[in-house]
Amino acid sequence: MLSTRIDALRRESVGQRATPWMIGFANFYDHWRWLTFLPVAVPLWAPALMYLYVYALVYGRWPASAWRILLPGTVEFTFQAVSFLLPLSPKLHWANIVAPIAGPIFAIALIVAFALQAWASLKLLNLHGSSDRYGHLRCFGSCGQRRWFGTWRRHSHQRSLE
After folding, report:
1. Res 65: pLDDT
2. Which of 5, 6, 103, 120 is the most buried (most CB within 10 A)?
3. Do 100 and 106 meet the contact criterion of CB atoms below 8 Å apart?
4. 46-70 per-position pLDDT tens digit
5. Rounded CA separation 81/92 (Å)
6. Do residues 140 and 3 lie in contact, with contact meaning Cβ atoms separated by under 8 Å?
7. Distance in angstroms (rounded) separating the CA atoms of residues 16 and 10
8. Are the beta carbons of 110 and 99 closer than 8 angstroms?
9. Is the pTM here over 0.90, yes or no?
């Protein structure tokens, strides 16, 4: 099922975010300087995969515009991969130059991406979430997992009435 595959990718993307921190605390970067820019964590893929997961639940297919949704994460991965492939001395010099610039840019991009994808996901759920229509959401695991959507709709509707 497509939604299950996307959910696995989403979980993997979020889980990989901890890898650079764990190896950093273990002093890997001090002992193996060549690990700088190792492209194991691409946080900009997480919000895109979360939206694609919601989209797959609602429609049961991959959106035609998926490549645009994955583009920010692909840019971040490409930046990391190309920087990682540099020889050690130029890589360390490049890291000193680009870290104060790229770090904040990717952090702001991540905040904006999460905000946009959350807004788009909520919009998608609200547009396609009337009580008579959420039954077509694709099941993964057991179909009892659809209940989260009905609960979300009830709470969302109650808040809008208050």
Report:
1. 87
2. 6
3. no
4. 899 889 888 888 888 888 888 999 9
5. 14
6. yes
7. 10
8. no
9. no
